[in-house]
Amino acid sequence: MKAEIDLRERTKQFAKRIVRLFAALPKGAAAQTLGKQVLRSGTSVGANYREANRARSKAEFISKTGDCLREADETVYWLELLSEEGFLPSVRMQPLLAEANELVAIFASIVKKSRGD
Predict the structure, then answer these.
(1) Exposure class string for 45-83: b at 16+ Cβ within 10 A, else e
(2) Tell me: the pLDDT tens digits for 11-64?
(3) What is the DSSP secondary structure assignment for residue 88, as one 8-state letter?
(4) What predicted TM-score, i.e. pTM, was given to this entire model?
């Protein structure tokens, strides 16, 4: 139960950091286009995790947790693009990218264990 609460809060804090990152992006078309993508995927990780914890079946839990994994991995992709294109200093991007990669690993592990792999 404690891990569930911790991950729930962790994904919410991650979403808040993504929102702040989006607000700090330059107003040019490329940065804003990539920013909207990372905003959508990065904030949906926590929302999907909340849904997973209200699943009515194991299959539904695995499906929703899989959604968390996909969104976290997509967020890594958009963060990498933003970083590689230099829209924000890499020193600012690295901690967020590290957290996104950790969330990918966590959700991959949850999905694997839930499936019995």
Answers:
(1) bbbbbebbeeeeeeeebbbbbbbbbbbbbbbbebbeebb
(2) 999 999 999 999 999 999 999 999 999 999 999 999 999 999 999 999 999 999
(3) S
(4) 0.93
What CATH number did the domain enclosing 65 receive?
A: 1.20.1440.60
Judge contact between 102 and 46, C-beta under 8 A: no
Separation CA 8–CA 87 (nearest Å):
29
Residue pair 53/4 in contact (Cβ under 8 Å)? The answer is: yes
3-state secondary structure of 98: helix
The structural domain count of the chain equals 1
pLDDT at 1: 53
Range of the domain at 70: 2-115
CA distance 12 to 89: 23
Say if CB 35 and CB 24 are below 8 A apart.
no
